[in-house]
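Q: Got a minute? One more chain.
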Amino acid sequence: MQSNLVFMNRIYTFLIVFWLAAPLSVFAQKNKASGLIYENKVTEYIDSLALLRQRLDSLSRVNDSLRHESNDGRFFRLFAPLTFYHSPAGKILMLNSPLIGKDSVADAIDAAMMNVYLHRPELVLNSESNLRKVGSIRDDFDHEVKPQVTLTDKKAPLPVAADVLPSGELFIQKPNFWTFKGDNYLQLLQNYVSGNWYKGGESNYSMVGSVSLEANYNNKQKIKWDNKLELKLGFQTSRDDTIHKIKSNNDLIRYTGKFGVQAHKRWYYSLQLLAYTQFTKGLKTNDEYVYSDFMSPFNLNLGLGMEYAVEAFSKRLTGTINFSALSYNFRYVDRKYLNKRYGIRGDHHTMEDIGSQITADLTWNIHDNIKWKARIFAYTSYHRVEVEMENTISFNFNRYISTNLFLYPRFDDCGERDSYIGYWQFKEYLSLGFNYSF
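A: Always. Here it is, folded:
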């Protein structure tokens, strides 16, 4: 506050010096131009400066004693448009005026105004008489002026008319947290199957159709629920097969459901359900033996653990990796004579065990026209191991025409051991055909 007072005093001092000194400066310049130099004028000018200094010092001391200089209304006349007021002339022309000496600040302001009236009358834009015709003028600016505030009772807001729908009913649209998508194709293919493939089949030319549907829920807070249904069915014919005119070579019904609660950023506490079987019988050429069938086998896996949402390479690589430290596996074989083939011991239809598993579903858009989809499933009960790695590389020529390269290595030590590749099994096909996604 003290620094503000000193700053305002300096401003007032500068303005008063300017108005008092300006006429004298103009006068001296005129005398110099006309060649008239009077020493007495110089002496008077020096004496006037000394007198002005005394007055300014007195004015500064008076201003220091003021409480709120920034709100002092007496300085209004110095900053308002220049007007001829009666009080400055009245003080000077009146002999022994009682008003002189009572207020040094008012005296200094009046003297500055009078100096301008006498030497620069052309700057005066208005007069006090004209202002009085418009309205009254306040003369008592010796105290702080505060605005008068009138309080009124609070008024209630005006009612706003509600928009009425033409039908007279109110519709509220709730946010939709569900997303749906699908991927379908029908293709011709060249197929290779190893001799010990656990579902049977043989290498040949054939056709295959696939439908993949997803319905996913995500409330953008902490809860998500993913559902995916995969249906694949392919048929083949073989000239060498005299028993079967048509056989299936690609057969799958698989549902994957995952419920997650966000733990931290991309990590979720996860409960995963995986269930899969097939549509029709699995056969081999010139062999009446049925190697697999609907519900033979049927696998159900329930895993509890953590899931990580993958997002890399500028969102070109996306998907999930699920780690289930505790996993329950249930296997059912309807055709009892196949129970040993699928790891069931004794005269039973079912097998149960508990272990751990890792599941990954990844999609990598390598290029605008090249996409790689991978599914990895690894389960161990610490007595047996089952690993599946499905890889589908799609080359899209346009929106509807594409070719697929499918590579499917599999390890299962419950099956029959091959003399060349052991418990490993392998399946591959290359196809060209029609696809549609939404």
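A: Residues 379 and 385 are 6 Å apart (CA to CA).
Q: Perfect, thanks.
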